[in-house]
TrEMBL record:
Its EC number is 3.1.3.5, 3.6.1.45. Keywords: Hydrolase, Nucleotide-binding, Signal. It holds the Pfam family Metallophos. One of its GO terms (cellular component) is outer membrane-bounded periplasmic space. Residues 1-24 form the signal peptide. GO terms for molecular function: 5'-nucleotidase activity; metal ion binding; nucleotide binding; UDP-sugar diphosphatase activity. This is UshA. InterPro entries: 5'-Nucleotdase_C, 5'-Nucleotdase_C_sf, 5'-Nucleotdase_CS, 5_nucleotidase/apyrase, Calcineurin-like_PHP, Metallo-depent_PP-like, NadN. Transmembrane segments: none annotated. The keyword Phosphoprotein does not apply. It comes from Desulfamplus magnetovallimortis. Residues 37-253 form the Calcineurin-like phosphoesterase domain. Residues 405-546 form the 5'-Nucleotidase C-terminal domain.
Amino acid sequence: MKHMAYKYKIPEILLLLFSMTMLWSGCNSDDDSRMTLKIIHINDVHSNLDTSDIELSFNGEATGCEVGGMARIAAKIAELKEPNRNNLVLHAGDAVQGTLYYTLFQGQADADVMNAIGFDAMAIGNHEFDDGDEWLAEFIGMMDTPLISANIEVSTGNVLDGLFSPYVVTEVSGEKIGIIGLTIAGKTMNSSQPSSNIYFNDEVISTQAAVNELKDQGIGKIIVLSHYGYGNAQDLAAQVTDIDIIVDGDSHTLLGDFSAYGLESSGEYPTMVQNLDGDTVCVVQAWEYGKVLGELNVTFLNDVLESCSGNPHLIIGDTFTRQDSEGYDYTLEGEELATVQAIIDSEPKLDITADDEYLAAIIATYSSQVDALGETVIGWANEDLLHNRVPDHEYNGVTLPFGSDIAPIVAKAFYEQDPNADICIQNAGGVRISIFEGQLTYDTAYTLLPFSNTLFEIKMYGSEIKQVLEDAIENIVQGGSTGSFPYCYALKYDVDTTQPYGNRVYNLEFKDRITKTYSNLQNDSMYVVVTNNYIGAGKDGYTTFATVQQERGEGTDTYLDYALSFVNYVKELAAAGEGLKALPYEDHCIKSYISTEDETDNL
């Protein structure tokens, strides 16, 4: 055997061996090749800076409590960041639109809160375009956080030109991480107000192009910060190479198992899928309105995602209520309170969190003005507009043969605020009071429509629209709430409650938006129905709303606040010198109503 001759001298050999040893050691060392990262995330806050009320179940007992609030979110973010230097705080879009904080301050309150928290990046959501290019440019100017979107293209010279980028590169413990932004294209173009100088490119192609640019820069740890929707995000992952994590928004999806507490979720937190390379991608989302803060813990081995786990934290206040045997609310104390606290303490996904005082002070500077806004006049009513849930029933000594005056007007307001709608259907129980002649304020609108509902679109055949009206009335027959009685706009019909289920609603006529004329509703024609997201999910007896979505895919939540939509409608009338007034008979949804003889069946 011949021996190879080495040209190195002995000291050089030792130096080379030492260098190779260090290199091998670095490749196998946890310190050098593995990186842990905590991603703290939120999405779809929609200007919900204050807490909101929710009902949870503890040991099977319905319990009222406060959830969310950005002052509490800030406190939880600080708590999660404290022991972890390797962290990112991300916002997956739709920071604005939905409460009086936006109506009054046009994004300034939201920006001040977000700047105080300190986000590393925010995806541009579809509702960031609701008030056009100029508003978004102003909002970006208010923000310390970089806004990103890889699939939005802006014409040269447009007010948004150069104000956002497709991605950002951040450095954590010496490691570069690419964060790619993504905005849902179709919904933004069709339901928001970007100008003709804004172009929305294909989400998958745009993401892959951004990935390729990052890879060319030697960046292998890649996060997609998308406002795209939970299902879309999973589909995206399968079509793109080299991505590791998707922090998503848009669909207001609750992930993680909260079934023990009475909340339904849509999947696991995190949801594990595969990218086009066959590598694992972790997909997360954090519900809505600042109720949940996501905590995702990931480990990279070199540039490969090795593991991810974490918790969606439902942020809860420290006061709880229940109803006594007579239906009156009371606040939990003593053993009852201790039992609830013990359950929460044992559950990593539930967190009783106090306000961050600094954030609470920022919000307080705006909340006093929000309270004052409640007294601001938005328009007027020309006459009394009474509300009775079911037609031909007495209301304070008055019988309304065609039912509510105000509910069909609410339906018209929603129809007018949603240009996609062919028909609006609104449940009687979603409308809470009568409106009386005189001035109308924000408080009037939010008392009339007090729930945290949004406008929701569902595509339905005419036969299915008839069916959902039948469902709603049958719900009353079966002992459900009279609040399920349906009121509509751009749709009118006769009702005979003496008939069996399936035959109570007949002679349905549909009003064409362009010609303003009525014609028979066609069973085999498809229509866009706008409703509120509560009954849109099949609640209150509206089961066909749910079944058609199960068969053909989910409807579209516009995330337009339903009370604010009514406010805008009243303001538009006032600007035209008009006040609210009862719909003429030819536009009222109830053409005729035949009651049953049984007064106990509520029909």
